[in-house]
Structures are given as structure tokens and as C-alpha cells.
Amino acid sequence: MLLFLTVFVASWLYHGLGITIGYHRLLSHRSIKIPRFLEYFIVSGGYLCFEGSPIAWVATHRVHHKLTDKEGDPHSPRNGFWHSFAGWLFSPEYKTPKEQFPVVVPDLLRDPVYRALDPSNPKTQWLICLTVCVVFRLLILALLGPVALVANLLGAATIFIAAFLVNSVCHIPRFGYRNFETADASRNVWWVGLLACGEGWHNNHHAFPQSARHGLSWREFDISWYAILLMKALGLAKDIRLPKKQELVTGGVSTSDSDKNRRPAAMENIEGPVAALEKLTDMESRLTPDAV
């Protein structure tokens, strides 16, 4: 039982932080800077959780932020719960065309490792991911036995499903609450926040997309943020992007029902085609490195 629990928790953290910090806060939003070797290690946790090509993942996510809950959003519940949960994966019309990748993810295309994981043929891409994931779990089986293998699969499955819950449940009005009146339907859902390593504080995230911290109060437990703080304490993380204090005060993080209608500082609307996503660092000028 001890082996099972240890491997389960370790797997949930390894795969979970691989998605939340690696794919999301680091690659998609450039919320922090860490050494390249550590970046690859963290991202590997997401890749070994069947998340597929980091390039394709980040491209989809950046388009989602540009068109959140509008026409063209890859996975909005406006097209139905199943679509937002997983159906979009099987709908080619909601995928970001590869010819747009040089505009949407030019930073990742410059990296040889991420390019190697994203061949031109999508079927080959998923075959590579599946093969690597199977080999990884065969190693767990050989080194730690079947109990550890089952624990790893359950830990990976938990965080895998949690990521889909963020896309779906956290954009449905009847769930959760809102700290900020954003131009989308994003919600903070506490149980998704716990299950998905802090990603469930989704309204906070859409109000401040490049913030490395999603849980903006002590009540909003964000284990990914605590992991980032640990890396900073060890001298491994720098240029950590956070909302300025005055932005949070102006935005009025809700502490009671009477606060729910207070609006955040005006969000910058990036006009123009998807090409605007190329300059992500220009999208949120209110976020500055190490702002407190």
C-alpha cells in the first residue's frame, strides 16, 4: 500500500506539474524562466501523460485565449459539453492548422526537441507519443513491479481527466464563481483547482493570463504556484510574472457577494489576425517580472 500511494502521488505531481507548469504556465504563457534542462524535465511529465506535441498543445491554447468562448475557440462549451471536454480532439476543423504554427508558436519551433516531437504527420506525432509513454511504463513495471505501474496509470489518468475538466467545467456558468468580470465565461471551480494542481482557478487565469500564480488568495490552493516558489527559492526560477498589487485591488478579488460586480482593470484586447499571438510578451503589459 505504501508503494502504491507513493507512486500514485509522485505520478500525479510529475504528470500534473508537467501539464500545469510545463505546457501551460511556462511554454504557453512564458510566466517564468527556468534552465533548459529543468524545462525539458518538467515538460516530459506532460508528454508522458499522453498530452502529445508541446507545439500543437501550445498552439491550441494560445488560440483558445485569443478567442475564448467565441467563434473559433477550439474547445468552448458553447459547442456542447462533450465538445469542450474531449470531442474537439476528434474534430479537425477545431485544430490550429500547421501553416499557422510559425505565427502562433514561433518560439517553440526554434527548439529542436519540440520540433522532433511534432512531425508533419499528426498520426506519426501521436505514434511517437504513444511509443514513448508505453516504454516509460514498461520501465516502471520492470523496476518497481505491477503495483507501481497501476499507481502510475491511475495518477496519470487523474491529471489527464482533470485537464479536460478545466476546458469544460471551468467555462460553464452554473459552476464555480468569478473574481473578475472577464469577457468570457471562465469560472473558478474549487474541486477542479485541487484535482488539476491549481488550474481550476480559471477565472483568475483568464483575468491575468500570463500570471504564474492562478490561486490569488490563501483560499485558492495552487500547488503549481508553490512548486514555482520552491524553484525560485532554489535559484532555478526567475522572471516570475504576477499581477501588480494595484491591479488586484482595482480588479477587486471577491471576498463577499457584494464584491462580485467589481471589475478588474481594463483588459487589453489584441486586435487583428492570429498573427498578433506572435508577440505574447506585448499582450499583458500589466504583468511584470517579480511584481508583488
Strand line-up across the major sheet: 1-2
Uncertain parts: 252-292
Q: Figure out the total of helices.
A: 13
Q: How would you sum up the major sheet?
A: 2 strands, antiparallel
Radius of gyration: 19 Å
Q: Hey, roughly how much beta strand do the residues contain?
A: under 5%
The sequence of SSEs as H and E is HHHHHHHHHHHHEHE
* Shape field: globular
Average of pLDDT: 84
Count up the domains. 1
Structural class: mainly alpha
Distance between the termini: 43 Å
Number of strands: 2
Proportion in helices: 40-55%
Structural overview:
It contains 13 helices and 2 strands. The protein has one domain. Strands 1-2 form a two-stranded antiparallel sheet. It is mostly helical. Mean pLDDT is 84; it is low at 252-292.
Topology readout:
Blueprint: H1 2-28, H2 36-51, H3 54-66, H4 81-85, H5 101-104, H6 106-109, H7 112-116, H8 122-144, H9 146-168, H10 190-195, H11 202-207, H12 223-233, E1 241-243, H13 245-251, E2 287-289
